[in-house]
Amino acid sequence: MSLRNEILEVSRELLIERGFGKLSMRNIAKRANVTATSIYLHFDNKDDLLLALIDQSIEHLKEKLLAEIDSSKDLIRQLEDLARCYIQFALDHPKEYEIIYMVRPEEMPEYPKEKFQQIRSAYELLAEIIDKGRQKDLIDVENPVISAYTLWAQLHGVVSVILNKRLDTRIPQKEFIDQAIEHVIQGFIIQKTPA
């Protein structure tokens, strides 16, 4: 593992343990067993390090989502696959997932404008599929971007319940995920009335 990646890994752990306000280059250096100076060879400051962590996590999530898209499947199935992939990413990579969402806006350094496209691109994948479904009269939405964001927010809620260990112990996790995805997706589908 490169020194840069090792610094990012240690920083991710410390950020989750202590929060951004208590994260310091000195603590990172101590945990990584390097000098603080060596961290500054890779990152300008703590804000730069945080942005790198967020970028890395978003890029990893986006790679997983892109790999999941199978255009040979119908659009509804593609949405289900992306929803399942999003949840599975969070369960398989909880630290990376937390990094994307845990830092409060008032603690965030100013995010460069060119980076916002990268953040948006994850749910814009959903928006594209929703829009295709709308054009084919499979999905009943007015604004695919708002609908994609709504879908993302619902999935985020499902993930949060599981990661924060708030799932009712009487409910099997797999069934909870399966039903949550089904209910969320069904909310978008145009229901055909029998003739």
What does this structure look like?
By secondary structure, the chain is mainly alpha-helical. It folds into two domains: 1-43, Homeodomain-like (Arc Repressor Mutant, subunit A, Orthogonal Bundle); 54-186, Tetracycline Repressor, domain 2 (Orthogonal Bundle). The protein contains nine helices and no strands. It has helices spanning 3-18, 25-32, 36-40, 46-68, 75-92, 94-102, 113-135, 144-163, 173-186. Helix 1 packs across helix 2 (25-32), helix 4 runs parallel beside helix 7 and helix 8 runs antiparallel to helix 9 (173-186). The longest helix is centred in the first third of the chain and has 23 residues, at 46-68. The protein is elongated. The model has no long low-confidence stretch (mean pLDDT 87).
Mean pLDDT: 87
Number of helices: 9
Note the quaternary state here. single chain
Series of H and E elements: HHHHHHHHH
Q: What's the CATH superfamily of the largest domain, by name?
A: Tetracycline Repressor, domain 2
Tell me the CATH architecture of the largest domain.
Orthogonal Bundle
Main beta sheet strand tally, sense and closure: none
Helix content: 55-70%
Number of strands: 0
Strand content: under 5%
Overall form: elongated
Given as residue ranges, the uncertain stretches (5+ residues, pLDDT < 50) are none
Stated plainly, the CATH topology of the largest domain is called: Tetracycline Repressor, domain 2
- Structural class by SSE content: mainly alpha
CA(first)-CA(last) distance: 62 Å
Give the total of domains. 2
Give Rg in angstroms: 19 Å
Name of the top-level CATH class of the largest domain: Mainly Alpha
Pfam family, one: TetR_C_33
Organism: Rhodohalobacter sulfatireducens
Keywords: DNA-binding, Transcription, Transcription regulation
InterPro entries: DNA-bd_HTH_TetR-type_CS (IPR023772), Homeodomain-like_sf (IPR009057), HTH-type_TetR-like_transc_reg (IPR050109), HTH_TetR (IPR001647), MT1864/Rv1816-like_C (IPR025996), Tet_transcr_reg_TetR-rel_C_sf (IPR036271)
